[in-house]
Amino acid sequence: MIDDMGDPEGAGVPDPYPRQAGDPDNAAHPTEVMPVCGILDDETSAQRSGEEADNAEKPPEKRPRKKRWVVLGLVAVLVVGTGAFAAFWAQRDDESSNSRERVPVEAVAVQRGDLSESATLTGNLDYTAKRPLTGSASGIVTELPAVGDTVGRGEQLYRVDDSPVPVFYGDTPLYRTLDTEGMVGRDVRVVANNLATLEYRVGQQPPVGTVLPRPDTPQQDDSSGQQSRSGDSGRSAAPPSGGADTGTSTESSDGSDAEADTVTVREGDAVLTASLIDAIERWQRDVGMPATGVLGLGHVAVLPGEVRVDAVRAQLGDNAEDTVLTVSSTAKAVIVRAPVSDLDAIAEGQEVTVTLPDDTTAPGKVATIEPVTKGGSPGSGSPDGPGESERKVTVTLTDHKKVDGEPGPVQVRFTTKTHEDVLVVPVGALLTLREGGYAVRVPERGLVKVQTGMSVRGKIEITGDGIEPGTKVVTTS
Predict the structure, then answer these.
(1) What are the φ and ψ backbone dihedral angles of 33, each rounded to 5 degrees?
(2) Domain limits of the chain?
(3) Whole-number mean pLDDT of the chain?
(4) Choice among 367-381, 390-404, 452-466 with the minimum mean pLDDT
């Protein structure tokens, strides 16, 4: 340590690096690293000694102290910088370690269940089974329903000549005037079934196989000579059709054509009995129709079931024989145009999930699959024609009450592949092994190598030694 008190006699500060004999004027002296505090004390002492002895002989300054200051300053900067750099990286390591430690994990049980892959196609939610409705009887349209109205069995659909046209349910329309007792056919069955459902007494029907005489002409009442049940219906009814079932024939003397004069009740037929005619008359009176007991063309609209009025085509005063309305089903369905390449995953009766415009979901089922031509009409594609490019898939909805919004685009998810009864864990439980493959961490055993299978929506199928339902594995939470 350099003495910072100086010479007691005021002779000045001795040179700590005295010149040696034979040294050149610019000879370098060895550099000695000194504490920063010692250098400051030395300079202060020299200044004080100089003030006390102005006239004293000063030793020649052979080595400026500035060089030592530069060296020591650089050393200090390096020391401080190195320390700061080390502290910075130490802090980063701590933060990285803390970040890794903050990843939340939990132990979950391996589950057994089914995994399914799916394909989603865009469809359109709308009312289906739309069809135009044309009147069959001449007359003037005098009343029309409103779009959106629903009409059921026995209810008025519209009015012609101010007489109601009610709805009957069935598959066979009235194709003739039912005006003669003994007429047999499927159209008679439609009338009998609807009146019975509306709680009118229609009487007993002859069993299947019964052979009846053919009603070639209206029956005559011997006492009055008048036709039975052939009165004016209030609309232009066709003349008695008599042999509309199979036609009329003339019996020969040998009876060879006797079979042509009879009719056999077949499966699905009904007979226009006196009791049924009475039920028709009572029903006509109740709904406001002329109570004649006769039903002619256009007197009722035979439809598959309850309908919704989709569009009104006619105006008041139009001829009832033109198109009057367009009707549809009362329940919405989804129509999907599916490419043929996707048909392997679609089948009639298949259950699907429909995502509705409000993002809720509803279960559904594939009802029909029909070919579609370039023009877009289903059912007319040829095996080698343009209809093979896509199919019209109709999906009916299981819960119609959930689907009360407006028609619009929806998403339909079809299941394409299913793995049943497999072991399933969250994807976050998988760990990638350095040598390849995957493992899961079991708290009691450590890493267990596993094989993976189908992965669906954050779940993955696995198999491995000792892995079974209930086994706990570690996963990110």
Answers:
(1) -75, 125
(2) 105-116+419-476, 117-127+331-416, 134-329
(3) 76
(4) 367-381
The pLDDT assigned to 258 comes to: 53
Region label for 355, one of left (φ > 0), alpha (ψ between -120 and 50) or beta (otherwise): beta
Residue 183, SS3 per DSSP: coil
In this predicted structure, the answer to whether residue 143 has a pLDDT above a threshold of 50 is yes
Is residue 234 over pLDDT 70?
A: no
- The CATH architecture of the domain made up of 117-127+331-416 is Beta Barrel (2.40)
Ranked by mean pLDDT, the top range of 39-43, 160-164, 405-409 is 160-164
Pick the CATH number of 105-116+419-476 from 2.20.25.90, 3.90.180.10, 2.40.420.20, 3.90.930.12: 2.40.420.20
More confident site: 348 or 374:
348
Q: Above pLDDT 70, what percent of the chain?
A: 65
| Pairing status of strand 262-264 against strand 270-271 | unpaired
**CA gap 226, 302 in Å, rounded:** 32
Positions of E strands within 246-322: 262-264, 270-271, 301-303, 307-312
277 secondary structure, DSSP code = H
At 406 the pLDDT is 72
**Number of residues in the chain:** 477
Identify whether the C-beta of residue 350 lies closer than 8 Å to the C-beta of residue 425. Answer: no
* Two domains, one topology: 105-116+419-476 and 117-127+331-416: no
Torsion of CA 11, 17, 18, 19, to 10 degrees: -140
What's the CA gap between 173 and 188, in Å, rounded? 10
> Residues 182, 240: contact at Cβ < 8 Å?
no
CA-wise closest residue to 304 among 335, 329, 332: 329
409 pLDDT higher than 70: yes
> If 0-12 CB within 10 Å is exposed, 13-18 middle and 19+ buried, where does residue 118 land?
middle
The residues pairing with 392 across neighbouring beta strands, listed in sequence order, are: 337, 370
